[in-house]
Amino acid sequence: MNRTDDSDATSESNSNYGPDDAFSRVEYNRTVGDMKILKFIIRVLVLILISLHPATLLRAQADEKYAGDIREQDLRVSEILNGLRDGQAAPTTIRLRYSGTRGDYLAFYDYVGREIYYRYRRNRFDDRAERKIQWLIAGQAYAVQGDYTGIMSVGVFYSRNDDRYREILGEPDIMPVYNYQGAQPLHLEQIIIR
What we know:
By secondary structure, the protein is α+β, with helices and mostly antiparallel strands. The protein is built from 6 helices and 6 strands.
């Protein structure tokens, strides 16, 4: 008996909440139809906005090309070595990318990938030097400052005061060695310029 009472109550409650008369059904269908149209219009507007945004972005990029942190006209290792062979002074600041540590040296590379070493510590127990370089990020471009000290060939360092310096300077696979003084990140310069 309880079941029939419950089913009657349920049917009465459904009739109270559902659209029974013709006017309620029409109004309900119109509301649902309006909602569908509104959803469609919103979707179309979102698609239009999304499609327009990359177009304006591409036009802005076409006008102003990003040259990168290290530009093609920046000094390269080969140009520095040619200048040293001709008797010119080595530059003190060079735009390079950081590669990592190699013993007591920091390895940086130029636009074409040739490395330059910067001596940053006296020996492996120099803890203060480690704190100076902990913020360097591999692959990041820096304006690196340092004093030129000599060249490295096949893992052997030759000071510019060494007797064999001129002879070794003529070899093709050598790299300049500097004493590390500091480095300024170049990404900040790019942000400020823009």
